[in-house]
Amino acid sequence: MQQVLDFIKKLEKNNNREWFVENKKSFEEAKEIAASLFNAVYNELKPADHLGPLKIYRIYRDVRFSADKTPYKNHFSMYMSRSQPDYRGGYYLHIEPGKSFIGIGFFDPNKEDLLRIRKEIELDDELETILNSKNIKTTFGNLEGDEVKTAPKGFDKTHERIALLKKKQFLLIHKFTDKEVLSPDFYKEVANVFKKSRPFVDYITDVLLTNLNGEKK
């Protein structure tokens, strides 16, 4: 993985097509090493979860609607969704020098799913209890994700769980140092962190597959 981190560091300083073309061989080698890591993570986690296909993101940026016109991403990344419709949520891994992390959960719930999650939060404190558990708190800290500025429409702004009700995304984040990324067992550590999120991921999955009475949809 040192070769991967070294390549990204050079790319950050030379994010242009001319340099990239001249260093295409280095890119291909780094890409292959990153892909090997991503496949190892996937294979390590798959027996313990219900996963859809592995998605490895391309390094090329879509600059059409971005103010940042640099043509390449300064990272390698992957995503594993859980097998729908019976399993929800997903796992993201981002490799970047000094900024590597994993993101777990529900990045962009649709309008119906978001309302369903909020309705459950309004009714009981189970999600709050899970997020405050020692396992989740120690590994991930606080729940991350975009949120509305005030109470969502139809919800009481004085509700005791208003901080959760305001969320539009429900994400757990865990950061890794470069030293951890370079460990030979890094893929196992990534899979282990993903596994620690299961109470959170499974709870929201259960919510999305049932109505407010707990009956299967």
Q: Shape from CA axes?
A: globular
Our estimate of the beta-strand percent is 15-25%
Major sheet strand order: 1-2-3-4-5
Count the DSSP helices: 10
> Could you tell me the number of beta strands?
5
Order of helices and strands: HHHEEEEHHHHEHHH
Q: Low-confidence stretches at least 5 residues in length (pLDDT < 50)? A: none
- Which structural class fits the helix and strand makeup? alpha+beta
Taking the alpha carbons of the first and last residues, their distance comes to 45 Å
Major sheet characteristics: 5 strands, antiparallel
Q: Mean pLDDT, rounded to whole units?
A: 95
Radius of gyration: 19 Å
Instruction: Tell me roughly what share of residues is in helical segments.
Output: 40-55%
Describe this structure in words.
By secondary structure, the chain is α+β, with helices and mostly antiparallel strands. The chain has helices at about 1-15, 15-20, 25-45, 110-125, 125-130, 135-140, 160-165, 180, 185-195, 200-210, and strands spanning about 50-55, 75-80, 90-95, 100-105, 170-175. Strands 1-2-3-4-5 form a five-stranded antiparallel beta sheet. Helix 1 (about 1-15) crosses helix 3 (about 25-45). The protein is globular and about 60 Å long.
